[in-house]
Structure formats: structure tokens, C-alpha cells
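ugh ok fine here u go
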Amino acid sequence: MTGLLFFSYTASLNAQSESLSDTYFNLADSLIREGKYNEAAEMYEYCLEAERDLPVPDLERISECQTNQGVCYFYLREYDKAIVSFEASLRVQDELGNRENIADCFSNIGLVYKKRGYYNKALDYYRQALEIDKELGNEESIAISLNNIGVVYDLWGRYGKAIEYYQKSLRLEQKQDNKDGMAVTLNNIGLVYNTWGKFEQALGYFEEALAIDRERDDQMDIANRLNNIGLANFNMSEYDTALYYYKEALNINIRLGQKDMVALQYNNIGMVYYDRKDFDQAIYYLEQSVRIYEELQLKANISKAYSNIAEIHFARKNYDLALAYQQKSLQIAKEIGLRNQIKEGYKMISGVYLALGDHTTALRYYQQFTTLKDSLFSEEMHAQIANFEVMYETERKDKEIRLLRQNELIKDLKIREDQIMRNSLIGGLTLLFLLILLIWISLWQKTRAHRIIAAEKAKSDKLLLNILPDKVASDLKEKGHTTPQKFDEVTVFFSDIVGFTEIAAKLDPQDLIRELNEIFTEFDNIIERNHCERIKTIGDGYLAVCGLPEANNMHTKNIINSALEIIRYIEQRNRTSEIQLPVRIGAHTGKVVAGVVGVKKYIYDVFGDTINTASRMESSSEAMKINVSEATYLLVKDQFTFIDRGGIEIKGKGKMKMYFVDSL
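structure:
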């Protein structure tokens, strides 16, 4: 994925009118064109000193020098210096009020932060550039900024948002017949398809981009496309073809002196050898890659390369080395906020501990993996719930499969019914007696078919209602789709079994599932009695909401009543059961977005900060206690008895007032 640096060249002036500043600037111009970035950066510094010594310094010239100096530092991989230069240029442009140049400065700073893996900062600067581009109505710059934002989301692992911005960018580039921009965006879309596992589609986008790059004879971009074509072939297990393209790209990048891309090729070649089970060659190439990434201080790349080396050691059953490398990868990923990399790191470490026989630690890391996975999924859905392709495993899987089969059976029966009617009409033209007989048979079979259809439809409706709320199920049956809704006030219930990890490690899996099924079945009954909606279970966690899909002004009272009933049920159960399963409950009131996710597997889910806050209420609760936020307390403070807990520090939210519901 690529970005764009904005800088300026000024034509040489007449020698007789050249000032010292002009001389330095034109010399720096020549040096930067020749790729002599160290010398050019030094010459721009001389130009700045000369300009500042003038009675009336030329602020535009000062800004140009600072921007071009930043470009030099960027290509030299001296990113801290590049940021300093670009920010200095931005301050001058702010003073001059040149909006177009301010946008360029924002884009340059965003590119440096993206290159270093600080995606949140990169996104902030790119968005500021986009706002100015829109204000100026510059479609070419708008397309570039849209693409830059898409790149950040892509690197960040938020693929739905990436596609959204890439598609907007591509439409503008096609409108302008901008071949350069089209090649970049086509390549980026291909990368997303490759990540999603649609390798043939990805290959098509890469090859389309390569054809444009060959027309332009851009060797750097050609190498990039060759690498990506190699990647798609690697993912399709076409290893010889992948090695061919990777080595073609490597040769070009060695010739161009592109160290970061050389490191990428080493990494990719290493992974081909890994898949071929040639582990010695794989580790050799990956260590070459790490050496270059460490030299360039590219933290995101270092984290990924360490993870790849860990994977190879895991395959060789060198579990201590695998754990050491993956922990190093995870530490870097946490430092710079690579959430997707953190998620995969948790999963890998879980697998290592499982192989070492430490099931408790393995389960703890796997729970961290699934929690982060759910969080990433929820954030994507909150903004574009109707547009994303998702694969989402739930406990309703078997029922959904049966629902699909019933729908197919209904279609088959309808076809059979039509065939019977046609055959009856044709046969009726022969003899009156046969006509009467066939009509009677047809009517009998039609009645039977209708009975079967009605019975199967009733089964399908029942299955659908088991999966979705009544109103949502009705919308799907009548319209074939349902629209996501925003609810301004609902109350969210979260519960969790205290000490579940330790309990799970001691129980037989069948006993564990039986216990959870018994408990959650009773939870379902209680939630339904109190006119609330069970949303889903996540391991030993249980999520329910009141106030959707239809508004309910008793939503807070209903949730508190449900929580009290659940506490009483668990207390009674624990008095007679050998397996003690205490619960911890939390509740919070606020706004959410809710809707059906998926097109083949219907999942009704809820998203928003209210869900996260309710989860914090649960994690801040205690065994057999109901902990609620101040927002929930204020709505029902006169209907229940509460114990004021004061302000409690919550990660990411600061201090929040909380209250225990007095269950006596």
C-alpha cells in the first residue's frame, strides 16, 4: 500500500538575480532529484538559514524548504526528523492561511505516522486533510485522501471501513481517468480481497494494477504489484509461481535500494519455505527480514516478522522459542495499538500453552483472543452494519441449518404442486372419466401438499422466532430484509460466572456444557418473563437487553427484576448442586444500535458504547451482586434499594459512580 508525499520544486532563476537563498534552494532541488537525500537535506538547511537572515524572509520559501527537507528525511527513514520538518512547514502555512498547502502538510505527517505504525495519529491527520480537500472542492486531492484513510483502516485490520474509502476513491479516479490513482486503489482493494481469502479476485485486481504500472514504467510500483501477485499465488498454494514473483520483486527493490521492501520480500520468501516445511531456509530469510526492519525501526513489521518466526518454531515443536518470539511480537503490537496483531498473538500463545499441557493459561489467552475478536467485530458493525460480509459462529448454528433446509423443502413442494396441476390438465383432455379421476387425485394431492407446506412453514417460523425477536422475524418474512435501528434508551444486562476458568479446567467438557445449558435455559425463561430480549452468550457470559426491538418504558425495572430473579435462582441452585457457580451481574442504561448481521446466518446483535459500559459494570461487580451505573440508578432509585459504592476507576472511562442493588 502506498501513500503520497507532497513537495515543491522551484525553477532556477536568472543567474544575475539569484540570491544566496535561491542558490541553495536550486542546488537542493538538483540533489533531491538525483536521490541524494542527505546532501539535499543539508542544502535545504543552508537555504533556511540564508532566508531567515534576510530583512523580510519569504515565508513560502521557508515552508517549501521545510517540506522538502521532511521528504528527504522520510526517504532516509529518519521519521522523527521528518515529522519535525513537516510540522514546522505546517506552522508557516497556518500563518500564511494557504488551505491547500495546509492539507498537503497534514497528508505528509499522516504518511509518516502510518509508516511508523501509529495508525490512530495517521488517521487523524488524513481526516484533517480530507476536510480541507472537500472545502476546496479538489476532487483529485479528495481521492488521494480517501485512499490514504482506506490504507490506514486496512493496516489496522478494519477491512469494512477500508473498502468503503477505497471504493469512494476509485469512483473519483475513474471519473478523472487518473491512471496513477486507479493503479494504487486497485492494488489496495486487491489486498483486502486477499486478506478475506478471495485470492482469485485479489489476483485480478493486482494484475489490472500491474498493467497500468507497466504502461507508466514505474519500477517501484511494478515491484509492489509483483510482490502482491506472489502473495495471492502463495495463498493459493502455487509456491513455485509465488517464489518467481517474489524474487522478481526482490531484484527490483535491491536495485532501487528500497530496504523496507527488500525486508518484505525476505519475509515472504521465508513464509514460502515455511509452507514447504523447509524450516531452516524459512528462518534464515525471516531473520534477514527482522535485521532490516530493526535497522529501519519499523515496529509493525518487526512485530509481524517475530510472529512468523514464532510460528515456525511452533511447527518444529520448539515451544520455548515460539513463546519467546510471540511474546516479543505481542509486546510491540500493544505498544503501537495493532489490535489485529494482538488478537492473533493471544491465539498463538494459547496454542503454545495448550501444546505444553498448561490448559488453564491456554484458556485464559484464548478468552482474551475471543474478547478482542468480538470487540473488533462490534466496532465494524456499529458504523456499517448492513454492508459487511461476516462469518459469525453462534450456539444457534444447528437451528439455522435446519431453517435453511426447511425453506428449500417448501420450494420443492411448491414445484411439485405446479407439476401435478399441469399433468392433471393435460390428462384431462383424454376422457371425461379420466378427467374426473385425475381432478380428484390432483385436489387430494394439493390438499396434502398444502398441509405439508403449512406444517413446514410453522416449523420454519418457530425456528426463526428462536433466533430473532418477533418484530425482526416478521420484517424478514414480509420484506426479506430488516433495517438496523438506533435505540436512544435501553437497559443492558451482563452476567458472568465467577472463577469459570478454574471450574472449567476441573470439569469434563460434557458436564461443563450440561451445566451451562441448564443455567442459561433458566436465564432465558426469567428474561422472557420480564419482557426482555436475550441477545447472545459468549462462553460463560450472558447478554440481554430490555427496550428493543420495541420500546418499553419499563426497561430498567424489568432488567433489575430479571437480575434479582437470577440471583435467587443461582442461590437456590448452589445450595443443592455439587458444582458451585456464583454469578456476577452488571447493568447500564443508554443508547445502542441493533440489527441483523449476515445474509446466510441471521444473527440479531447490539453495538455501541453502552454495551461496553454494561460489560464494565459486570466486571466491576462482585460474586452474587448486581452492580449498576449511575444512569441506571437514577431511573429506578425510588423503586429498589441501592448501596452507594462511590466512584470507581474504570479503564478507558475514568471514575464512574456505581451502586449495588440490595437483593434482601
